């Protein structure tokens, strides 16, 4: 399947996209695999509440089985990554939909499916007729409890040859070369309380966590703060706004530029984040933050200022793409 618009810049980007690292706040030795077009990273109780506001590369041995899922560590420990050898396989696109403004979700059927853990990702490779390849990492946005399939939500990046292809060219019935699941650092096994904070396309892996909580562990406390520009930019709308009284999860949405009628508009601030940080501290929750570099670093700074230990924060960042700010 050909990649589009091959330019010198795109070739350089493809090379740089091989394996980047996600950085945990103040724990630079915690390696994770990247998610996103740039190759840097990337993206209910009172469900859907609107918060008030204050103003991963390489070729694997072709016939080796997928490795077992990592043994996830106790809180404070970094789980091992699955960047090791896994088999490239031809996944078939069985559905495609516009998820939100600038976001498209592709549902893939995998001939050699292994259940992922929410927060993991797949590497996707496009190969041109002349042998040129470009590959990117995309987080899985579907729950692990979806046998035989994964869903990848792709952010359209200006000038992005892979994201452009997946948005404009890929259709139901096409095949895409993928390998995974990959990564352990940012994964959540639905086995302990967590606070999730995502901006824009960084909500993708957090949606997988929310879906898994509802499907397999509805009693595990989970808070998710989704930060987007406007209602048109809110992905996974049904999941983030549906009332699920049986679930111990709570979802809140921060709209930075425009909100539903009567709703507040503004960025996520320390004051808005404070009660969530307090609950995370009181319940010893793991905290997962995913979004652009600026978003993730700002949220990480607010969390540590609120007293959340850096060892409890798992940060995944992607380039300098526009975020919900």
Entry summary:
By secondary structure, the chain is an alpha/beta fold. The protein has helices at residues 8-16, 161-168, 203-216, 237-241, 270-282, 293-305; strands at residues 49-50, 89-100, 103-109, 121-127, 133-139, 149-155, 175-182, 194-199, 222-228, 249-255, 286-292, 313-318. The protein has six helices and twelve strands.
What report would you give on this structure?
Strand 11, helix 6 (293-305) and strand 12 (313-318) form a beta-alpha-beta unit. The protein is of the alpha/beta class. The relative contact order is 0.21. The protein has helices at 8-16, 161-168, 203-216, 237-241, 270-282, 293-305; strands at residues 49-50, 89-100, 103-109, 121-127, 133-139, 149-155, 175-182, 194-199, 222-228, 249-255, 286-292, 313-318. 19% of the residues lie in helices and 26% in strands. It starts with 7 loop residues before the first helix and ends in a 7-residue tail after the last strand. The chain is built from six helices and twelve strands. A six-stranded parallel β-sheet has the order 1-10-9-8-11-12, with helices on both faces.
């Amino acid at each position: 399947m050909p990649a589009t618009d091959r330019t010198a810049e795109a070739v350089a980007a493809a090379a740089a996209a091989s394996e980047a690292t996600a950085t945990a706040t103040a724990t630079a030795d915690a390696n994770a695999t990247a998610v996103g077009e740039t190759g840097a990273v990337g993206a209910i109780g009172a469900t859907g509440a609107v918060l008030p506001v204050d103003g991963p590369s390489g070729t694997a041995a072709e016939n080796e089985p997928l490795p077992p899922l990592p043994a996830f560590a106790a809180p404070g420990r970094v789980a091992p990554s699955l960047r090791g050898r896994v088999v490239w396989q031809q996944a078939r696109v069985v559905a495609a939909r516009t998820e939100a403004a600038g976001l498209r979700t592709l549902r893939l059927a995998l001939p050699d499916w292994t259940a992922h853990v929410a927060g993991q990702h797949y590497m996707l490779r496009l190969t041109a007729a002349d042998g040129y390849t470009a590959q990117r990492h995309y987080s899985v946005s579907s729950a692990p409890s979806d046998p035989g399939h994964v869903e990848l939500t792709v952010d359209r990046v200006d000038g992005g040859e892979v994201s452009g292809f997946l948005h404009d060219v890929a259709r139901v019935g096409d095949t895409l070369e993928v390998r995974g699941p990959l990564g352990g650092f940012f994964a959540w096994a639905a086995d302990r309380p967590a606070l999730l904070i995502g901006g824009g396309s960084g909500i993708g892996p957090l949606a997988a966590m929310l879906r898994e909580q509802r499907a397999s562990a509805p009693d595990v406390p989970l808070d998710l703060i989704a930060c987007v520009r406007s209602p048109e930019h809110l992905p996974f709308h049904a999941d983030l706004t549906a009332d699920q009284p049986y679930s111990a999860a709570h979802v809140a949405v921060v709209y930075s530029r425009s909100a539903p009628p009567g709703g507040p508009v503004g960025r996520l601030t320390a004051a808005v984040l404070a009660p969530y940080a307090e609950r995370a501290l009181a319940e010893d929750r793991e905290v997962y933050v995913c979004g652009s570099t600026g978003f993730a670093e700002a949220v990480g700074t607010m969390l540590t200022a609120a007293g959340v230990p850096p060892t409890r924060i798992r940060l995944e960042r992607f380039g300098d793409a526009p975020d919900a700010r």
